[in-house]
């Protein structure tokens, strides 16, 4: 039936550090983050990625746009179903942060596919388990609907781990069996399957082999509270 890979990437260094519960919650990439995005693009260039989906937060979107240009794709798809974990620490507690609409983001990022409609749009607040179920479900829908095309998902560490747990086939009671490592900035995980009915195989987890300098060592790794 043809082999399909799903690549799941975390953005590189943002221009401002997020302090949990305080923000800022939405920022573009730093110069080092831009470099990491181009290194990801170079790594994926020969891997036949056909579609790119990303969170609507600018650091993920900025990464996705740079990679899309580098691999020769003209558009990226904003999928709010893989947006940041809707927890007070990551979007703010009193007045939760909401990213700009696609209409406004298009002014800065014309590569956004304005015709793409998100599968779902989460609302604050959600538990860890709700976020894991949301992101896993959305990623499986994307992969199944586009089989056998390979896709790239660019999102946040919590969401990327949620997606990976789903592809590993591990429910809430089996998290301890997960092979997903804490996810460093710029880290890349790959799952592959040979048929739409086949189980996914994890080829690599949170890999930074494609990055240069000290980022290759896997810096600022993050994992879910339940995996700590």
Which helices and strands occur, and which strands form pairs?
Blueprint: E1 4-10, H1 31-44, E2 49-54, H2 58-71, E3 77-78, H3 88-91, H4 102-108, H5 128-146, E4 150-155, H6 157-168, E5 188-193, E6 201-207
Parallel strand pairs: 1-4, 2-3, 2-4
Antiparallel strand pairs: 1-5, 5-6
Describe the structure.
- A hairpin with a 7-residue loop joins strand 5 and strand 6.
- The radius of gyration is 16 Å and the shape is globular.
- The chain has six helices and six strands.
- The longest helix is centred in the middle third of the chain and has 19 residues.
- The chain is an alpha/beta fold and 228 residues long.
- It has a six-stranded mixed beta sheet with strand order 3-2-4-1-5-6.
N-to-C span: 38 Å
Helicity range = 25-40%
Q: Please tally the β strands and state the result.
A: 6
Query: So what's the overall shape?
Result: globular
The H/E string reads: EHEHEHHHEHEE
Order of adjacent strands in the largest pleated sheet: 3-2-4-1-5-6
Provide the residue-averaged pLDDT: 97
Enumerate the spans where pLDDT stays under 50 for 5 or more consecutive residues.
none
What does the main sheet amount to? Answer: 6 strands, mixed
SS field, number of helical segments? 6
């Amino acid at each position: 039936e043809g082999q399909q890979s799903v690549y799941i990437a975390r953005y590189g260094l943002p221009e401002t550090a997020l302090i949990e519960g305080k923000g800022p919650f939405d920022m573009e990439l730093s110069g080092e983050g831009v470099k990491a995005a181009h290194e990801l693009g170079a790594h994926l260039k020969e891997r036949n990625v056909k579609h790119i989906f990303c969170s609507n937060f600018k650091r993920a979107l900025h990464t996705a746009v740079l990679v899309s240009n580098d691999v020769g794709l003209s558009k990226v798809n904003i999928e709010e179903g893989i947006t940041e974990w809707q927890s007070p620490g990551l979007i703010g507690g009193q007045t939760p942060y909401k990213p700009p609409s696609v209409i406004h983001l298009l002014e800065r990022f014309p590569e956004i596919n304005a015709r793409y409609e998100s599968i779902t749009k989460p609302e604050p607040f959600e538990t860890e388990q709700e976020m894991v179920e949301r992101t896993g479900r959305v990623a499986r829908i994307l992969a199944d609907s586009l089989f056998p095309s390979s896709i790239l998902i660019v999102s946040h560490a919590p969401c990327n781990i949620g997606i990976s747990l789903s592809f590993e086939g591990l429910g809430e009671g089996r998290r301890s069996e997960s092979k997903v490592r804490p996810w460093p900035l710029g880290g890349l995980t790959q799952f592959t399957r040979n048929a739409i009915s086949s189980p996914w195989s994890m080829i690599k987890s949170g890999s930074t082999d494609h990055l240069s300098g000290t980022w290759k060592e896997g810096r600022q790794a993050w994992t879910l509270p339940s995996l700590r």
